[in-house]
Every structure is written in C-alpha cells, then in structure tokens.
Amino acid sequence: MTFERLIWQSALRNKRRSLLTALCVAFASVGFVLFVSRAAAPGALAQEAAVLGLLLSIGLTLLWSCWSDLCARAPADAVLFSLGFSRQQLATLLVMESVLLGGSGALVGVGASVALHAELGSLRIVPETLSLAFVAALVASALGAAWPAYRLSCSELCSPTVHDEFGPSHERRGIAR
Amino acid sequence: MNQLVFANQTIVSGRTPLIAARGMPSFDLDVPAGAFVGLVGPSGSGKSALLRLLAGLDRPSAGHLTVGGVCLNELDESERQSFRANAVSIVFPSQNLLPTLTLQQNLELPLLLSPLRSSERRQRARSALEMVGLGPRGARYPRELPPVDQQRAAIARSLLNGANLILADEPCQLISPSDHGRVLDLLSQLNSVFRKTIVLATRDESVVARTSLLHRLSPGPMRTRSSLTEATQAELSRQPLIEAMSA
Q1: Which of A125, A122, A104 is nearest to A114 (CA)?
Q2: Is residue A1 within 8 angstroms of chain B, CB to CB?
Q3: For chain B, how big is the Rg over CA atoms in Å?
Q4: Does the pLDDT at position A142 exceed 80?
Q5: Testing the interface with A: which of B47, B95, B105 to mutate, by most A Cβ within 10 A?
Q6: Which of A93, A160, B16, B124 is the right S-S partner for A170, CB 3.0 to 4.6 Å?
Q7: H-type helices in A37-126, by residue range?
Q8: Is residue A154 a contact partner of residue A94, using CB atoms and an 8 Å limit?
Q9: Which band of pLDDT confidence, cut at 50, 70 and 90, is reported for residue B236?
Q10: Residue B165, Cβ density class (10 Å: 0-12 exposed, 13-18 middle, ≥19 buried)
C-alpha cells in the first residue's frame, strides 16, 4: 500500500469521471498530433501545443469541478482527513490523480496517433510532436485539477461524517463549503 | 500523546460555547485516562459536534478544549493534523473504510503518514486485523463484509496510530442489534486490555450500558458538568453505569 495505490483507488472510485478524463485527453492528443502533422509550418508547434493545453485545461477543470464528483469523493476525503492527512495532501492526491489519468489518456492518444499515421500515410508525425502532445496533456491535467483541488482544500472536509437517523447528511445536502 | 499528561487524570476538558451558539448545550467535561465514557442524547444534542471537536476535525471558535494536555484551541493547522494522526482516533457510523481498498490496505492508511517501511506497515495492519479476528479477511474489500465487520475493522485501525483516545460516533447505528455486542465487546476490550480511553456517542441507551461513565446531552441551552474523581472510580467497580449528569 503506497500513495500511488491511494491515487489509483481514488481514480477507480469514480469510474465515469476517470474514463471521461482519459478519453478527453486521448482525443485531444490525437487531434493535436493530427492537426500539427498536417504539413504545418515547423515554428507553429509551440503555439498549437499551448492552445491545446489551454482548451484541455478548461475542459478538465469543468469536468473535475462537477458537484457530483466532489460529493462522491467527500466521504473518502473525510476519512483520510480524520486519519491525519492534511488538506494539502488531499489536494495533491486530487491533482496527482488527474495527472495520472491525463497521462494514461495521453499515452492512448499518442499511440492511436501513431496507429493512424500508419493508416494515413500522408501525415508526417515526428517524435517531437508526440512528446509535446504528451507534455501538454500532463500540464493541462494538472492545471485542470488545480481549481477543484483548491476548492477541496477549502471545504469543510469533515462534513460527510455528520450522521443523523436518516444516514449520512452529505448525501442529502451535498458537502458544505 | 504524552502519557505523563495523563497523570492529572484529565484528558478532556471542554467549555465549548461554539456548540451553545449552534443551539446545542455547552459542556464542562472531564474524562480521566482509561475511562469508557458514553455520551447519550437525541439528534442535535451536540454529540457528534463534540466528538469532531475532540478529534481536531472542527475548530472551536471559543471556549477551551484540552485533550491529553494539548490545548486544541492553540494548535495551528499542521499541529492539528499531527494531533489527528497521532493522538486520537475516530470511528464514524459508516463509510470508515475506503471501498476500493482491501481491509488490510484500509488499515495501512494511517501508517502511510509514518516513516515505517511498506513491509512493516503490512505486518502491523495484519496484526491488528488478527487481533480483532479478521485476519483471514484482510484481502477482502469492505463491500464483501457485513457492516459489523467493517466497523470492527475501523476500530482495529484505531489501534495502529498509537492514539490513546478513541472516539466512537454511533458505531452501532447501521448494524443490526444482534451484532451490537460484537462492536461493544471490541471497544470494551480496547478499554480494558489496551487501556485506551474511549468516548462513545449514541442515541441508543442500550449501547452505553457497558460504559463506566455516562453523560446525557439534550438539545437547547443547558449546561452539563461531570467529572470522575478517584472516589467515584472506586465506586465504579460496584456500579458499572453512572449517570453523572442529567438535565
């Protein structure tokens, strides 16, 4: 049992969000690689990577900020908080989880791009493009989780531990903040 | 938590106007080291709020809260984190275990914050599980176990961080009445064998029958006061249940 396992278990806890994140990053990576590889001017790579990163960050921020997602992870975060994990550690876990999923998605995307390249011979894919797509996806994943992580660290983490005769209160009210 | 602090026989003392401000009672509560204390009251009487304050999860906005000689009011966020990690354990009514980790991995969670090696963490978690009779089920996931075993595993986890104070918030709420005894047996065992101080909050009068000291809480602006002196401790051997305070 390590922190990495803890990050994985967190990713596994919300399968729908995790799958969406990985797919989102994978498609963005494929789109980026194909777009950049269409005989574009060599100097445009950095700008296009920046645009990809920005768009992906916005998309991931929206995805990870979903109320239902923060609610779903609230009980586990409350347990970890009560065991002595700090707010910063919980926020870091969330960012690392996003980077892990983003990295997985980017790997799939880059792999798919290479496979597509073999099919569509007209494209000129170079290793620099693939590397840049991967790095941009990682940065975007970290940035995308930054705002939700900040919200998480500021929230009332022990709120889900409040029970009454109807069960856990957060399931009816949402987590307090 | 420094054991020497327990020499004054007071590990918890609280005056928490914060609770009164929320329409709940304010407290003067003294709990001696090694006691098994019950807090009984209806919903909204402030039991869970008090436990969360004692666990360092909430911060009192006023009043004075001391656990094991540590004044919680004066702790900053990092000291509070360290307090939660080392000095106190809390057992919630449910969802104490992360569903995607096995029982053993769940027990290793508090040890992740310690400098122990992975093999030693595993060993300690296994020992704790065996201690509560869940050794063979260490590889199972919480969903594969009945609620009573999940609670017992959560209680076993509280042994691992070395905390002397265990707070149990409605530990029997979501388990069948026939299994209450198994959870309470374990808490009693921690109290009698490991000399853990236990504060158990519940609405159910039958659950607190084994506690050595009982505090009743009621919603509304009331004040309770109770302390267990050496004289009353001697009396405990004859009278297991003391209703120390009521409205």
Answers
A1: A125
A2: yes
A3: 17
A4: yes
A5: B95
A6: A160
A7: 45-64, 67-82, 87-119
A8: no
A9: very low
A10: buried
Give the SS3 label for residue B239: coil
**What is the value of ipTM here, to two decimals?**
0.77
- Which of B24, B92, B116, B202 would you mutate first to test chain A, the one with the most A CBs within 10 A? B92
Looking only at the bridges linking them, the beta strands covering B26-31 and B12-15 are: antiparallel
Q: What is the CA radius of gyration of chain A?
A: 19
pLDDT band at B10 (very low <50, low <70, confident <90, very high): very low
Question: How many Cβ atoms from other residues are within 10 Å of residue B77's Cβ?
Answer: 11
Please give, rounded to a whole number of angstroms, the shortest distance from the CA of B122 to a CA of chain A. Answer: 8
Angstrom distances, CA of residue A48 to CA of A28, A31, A141: 12, 11, 17
Report the DSSP pairing between strands B12-15 and B88-91.
Answer: unpaired
* pTM for this entry: 0.76
Cβ–Cβ gap A81/B84 under 8 Å? yes
Residue B52 at interface with chain A, using a CB cutoff of 8 Å: yes
Residue in chain A closest to B89 (alpha carbons) equals: A83
Q: Over the stretch A99-121, which tens digit does the pLDDT of each residue have?
A: 888 899 889 988 988 887 777 66
Residue B90 main-chain phi, psi, to 5 deg: -125, 140
CB neighbour list of residue A116: distance below 8 Å, 6 or more residues apart: A30, A34, A123
